[in-house]
Design a protein that fits this description.
Number of helices: 6
CATH architecture: 4-Layer Sandwich
Largest sheet: 6 strands, antiparallel
CATH class: Alpha Beta
């Protein structure tokens, strides 16, 4: 298996600071763009690609996203090999709870960090399996390279999508690191969904608030789509930070 990974994190047009942070293995990106290639035929430990979005309007959002990313990377590096699926899920459920509680505690110790919070969505490679880890409204999409079809794999942890609340507060985040008393994760295996040449997209809501799924599908299969998607979101207003990772899954090459 081989992955070609293209990532960009941009502050957008309106915001003065970037509270998003991207994780690729042990590498982090903020206000940067980068392309990676990894050959997993010789890579024998877990690997994660993710996006964290410090919640807008919260103090120290950039600190929260950095804390989530750093500790998710540490958890993956310490993840034992050859665990069954249920124990991998339990491991990340416990990890997420620890990260969440530490962010809440930090807000108690340091008043300037009170209320800081972050979402997180990631793709975990574990042996021959591929899993999704999801908290908040950062999204994960699958693009079928044969059908040219884009499908969202994550659900937003918003009042709208969790409770069906379509009122004015429907887009409010109902689950994120540091946002509420408790936290939960969505943890799903997608190995069987992926075909050779398919794409996965992990992105903050700075992209999805500006571009519809149809607009994303129009660009994602093109050369340098990660740069083009970020530019299109900025053309549409760029009201929030824009971070996205396009992952090309190559089972055979």
């Amino acid at each position: 298996m081989k992955l070609i990974i293209e990532a960009i994190s941009d502050k957008g047009v309106v915001r003065t600071a970037n509270e998003d942070l991207i994780l690729v293995g042990n590498d982090t990106l903020r206000d940067a763009a980068k392309r990676y290639e990894f050959d997993f035929s010789t890579y024998d430990h877990p690997f994660i690609i993710g996006v964290a979005d410090g919640l807008g309007g919260h103090k120290s959002g950039e600190v929260a996203s950095e804390y989530v990313i750093e500790n998710m990377a540490k958890a993956v590096n310490q993840l034992p090999l050859s665990l069954p699926r249920n124990l991998v899920k339990s491991y990340f459920t416990a990890t997420s709870k620890t990260i969440h509680d530490c962010i809440l505690d930090e807000g108690i110790v340091d008043e300037s960090k009170k209320g800081m919070a972050s979402t997180f969505s990631g793709v975990l490679l574990y042996g021959t399996k591929v899993f999704l880890i999801h908290v908040g409204d950062t999204r994960i999409y699958h693009f079928n390279s044969n059908k040219k079809e884009l499908v969202r794999l994550s659900r937003d942890h918003s009042l709208l999508e969790l409770d069906g609340n379509d009122g004015a507060l429907g887009s409010a985040i109902a689950n994120a690191f540091g946002a509420h008393k408790d936290i939960f994760i969505d943890f799903n295996e997608i190995t069987n969904k992926l075909q050779d040449g398919d794409l996965l997209l992990v992105c903050s809501d700075g992209l999805t608030k500006e571009l519809s799924d149809e607009e994303i599908a129009k660009w994602i299969g093109k050369s340098n789509s990660y740069l083009k998607l970020a530019e299109e979101a900025k053309k549409k207003g760029g009201n929030d930070n824009i971070s996205l990772v396009v992952i090309r899954y190559m089972k055979y090459w």
